[in-house]
Amino acid sequence: LCAERGVDFYEIVDQLAEEAAYGVSSDPAFGQVVLSSFKSGGIVVVAEELLQDAFFNLESYLLEVAGDRFNTLEETNFANGNGSGKPKGIFATTSVGGVSVPNTNAGSTSAITADNLVDVYHNLGRPYRNNATWVMNDATVKYLRKIKTGISGDTTYVWQPSLVAGQPDMILGRPVVVTGGAPTIASAAVTIALIDLKRYYIADRLGTSMQRLNELYAGNGQVGFRFTRRNDGRLVDALAMSTLTQT
Predict the structure, then answer these.
(1) Which of 32-36, 75-79, 91-95, 120-124 has the lowest mean pLDDT?
(2) What pTM did the predictor assign?
(3) Cβ neighbours for 13, distance < 8 A, ≥ 6 positions apart
(4) R_g of the chain, CA atoms, integer Å
(5) What SS3 state is found at 186?
(6) Gap between the Cα atoms of 122 and 205, Å rounded
(7) Is 149 left (phi over 0), alpha (psi -120 to 50) or beta?
């Protein structure tokens, strides 16, 4: 997969006078980010009697439950997977193609200030901010909801709760996504990401697949159901994300 690799693509193009020569960027704009195909899955064994006596479609139910489990696993991997046998999560990504992701260090192991959030916001290039989303876990959200602006006498909270059903909460005008896969506030943890999610590519090679194993467990009067899914995920542009790391 060819993609931008840490170069501000928006600065490559400039105004030209009539018949003027085109400018050439000396910085390579593209590299290769390879999206692999990592497999996840498992087998559920069910008694034949349960299959015969169930008053509902047990296979459909198992497929639904397996899908929920896959979704939970992928949410964790896309957030914090280490890239070894699984996707490379956004919180585990420090660089792309040798270009470092912009990072802000919080002033304390367990504290985050309004100024830290402003730094993270402005570390992200303006072209990416328009599509950017804050990503963090629920414990971090709880912490941020208690932060005030820090201006003397001002009791205004940094958190901007949504007043419209179906619309996301905001921080500094950008929506917030909560994921259980994001790290909890702790020393050296990357706890907050502001990212243009269009630059995090997900390759779904195989959706949820179910194979019925009638013979393998027949000796015990059971039927097996094997579930499989294959995918990968990678950040393809280092400048499309800005992070906060606890010191």
Answers:
(1) 32-36
(2) 0.80
(3) none
(4) 23
(5) coil
(6) 36
(7) alpha
